[in-house]
Design goal:
Elements (H helix, E strand, L loop, with lengths): L3 E8 L2 E5 L7 H11 L5 E7 L4 E6 L3 H10 L4 E2 L17 H29 L7 H13 L4 H16 L7 H15 L5 E2 L15
Parallel strand pairs: 1-5
Antiparallel strand pairs: 1-2, 2-4, 3-4, 3-6
């Protein structure tokens, strides 16, 4: 009996399919890629075993993909009703501009407030946080600001604080850092069909 698959998302030329029963089964997804990538109608194919999903880029339609998968005993693609995209009512004239101006004003007020607090803490002799905080700022400078110079400065401050024995921040801060790093860098690895597999009977590579 073929594993059941459901359509998670579809758009012209692209389809996301989920096979929940085989989530985490690397060998299944590797075999599925080998089989489905033989069809010239399938232009691209990626699989993520950790989420149990496929991304299928194609030049055909859903019934054809369902037939390909069934013929090669990959999965049984279920008829899944996908509701049409929700249409939001049009914003009144000037609504978007007003929202953008409000966001800009809010961001400016936050920036001024944080700069004021930073100056206040500096006057009290609390200019530098612990090493973990400075290393976190260095990470944010590289990942978010894309500024190696700022990252280098904060990295140096972190090393300085290490030499002073001020290395750990509060438990709640460290826990938050861990969650954010996991979110930013914990995406599951994907499998991808080789680019040269474009026909039903591919030639065997000599190497």
């Amino acid at each position: 009996m073929l594993p059941k698959a459901t359509v998670e998302h579809t758009m012209p030329g692209r389809l996301r399919v989920k096979v929940s029963d085989f989530r985490g089964d690397v060998s299944y997804f590797h075999s599925a890629i080998e089989k489905l990538s033989n069809y010239p109608e399938i232009a691209g194919l990626r699989a993520n075993p950790m989420t149990g999903s496929f991304i299928i880029e194609h030049k055909t339609d859903l019934p054809s993909i369902r037939k390909f998968a069934a013929d090669d005993e990959v999965f049984d693609l279920q008829e899944t009703f996908l509701p049409p995209p929700r249409r939001e009512p049009p914003a009144p004239s000037g609504g978007r501009a007003d929202d953008r101006n409000s966001a800009l004003e809010g961001g400016r007020a936050t920036l001024i407030g944080l700069l004021g607090l930073a100056a206040y803490q500096a006057t009290r002799g609390h200019g530098l946080g612990p090493a973990t905080e400075n290393f976190w700022n260095a990470f944010g400078a590289l990942r978010i600001l894309k500024n190696p110079t700022i990252a280098l400065v904060f990295g140096g401050l972190g090393i300085l604080q290490l030499t002073r024995g001020l290395w750990a921040g509060s438990a709640s801060s460290l826990l938050f850092y861990a969650f954010v790093v996991r979110q930013l860098s914990g995406s599951s690895p994907e499998m991808q069909a080789p680019a040269n597999r474009t026909n039903r009977n591919p030639k065997t590579s000599s190497d």
